[in-house]
Amino acid sequence: MSQQQGSKRVSSGVIAAISAAVVLVGGGVGWLTWNSNQDTNPTPSERLVPGNPPQVGNEQTTQIYWLQDTGTNFKLVPQSVQVQANRNQPNQFLTAAFQRLLEGPTQGSSGSSTIPQGTKVLGVDVQGDTVRVNLSGEFTSGGGSTSMQGRIGQIVYTATSLNPNAKVYIEVDGKQLDVLGGEGLELEQPLTRQNFKENFQL
Prior knowledge:
It is a single chain. The chain is of the alpha+beta class. The protein has a domain at 59-199. 37% of the residues lie in helices and 23% in strands. The strands form three sheets. It has a four-stranded mixed beta sheet with strand order 3-4-5-6. Strands 1-2 form a two-stranded antiparallel ribbon. The relative contact order is 0.11. InterPro entries: GerMN (IPR019606).
């Protein structure tokens, strides 16, 4: 009788040990499987939605404005360009547009620029239908009245590429620009596309 009980205890102990080993091995395999899935499965943002091609970067199209010589005067002409910015973040988007504008026309562009080389965009602030553009001091240097009016037009039209009816304030080194150049071109701000057409002759 005691031998039978002993054998039962041994059998129970062996079974318990084997069960524990199975649990440990199973748990280890499960952990390894889960961990490898974490490394190989794409995150939700990386998963491709059927029918939608993958997007590379964050390029979006905007318009910047150049001056085109018509033979008797100048006119503002748009050029569509790609910028690395989000249209839903207008400050960032317009800053990228102005940086591209201030680089000047590239080969194949349909116009020229009267914005002085070296001009930098120091900041763009969009609040509702108002756009404030802060430029470096180089913006005010050189050129006659046509050049001055042309560069104002380039800024106003590029600043309103997201909203053609927006009101634009131009600042230089953080101060509102009321008079431009040695010839004293007066600016009544805010500027809009409409009042530019009415008050400036290119």
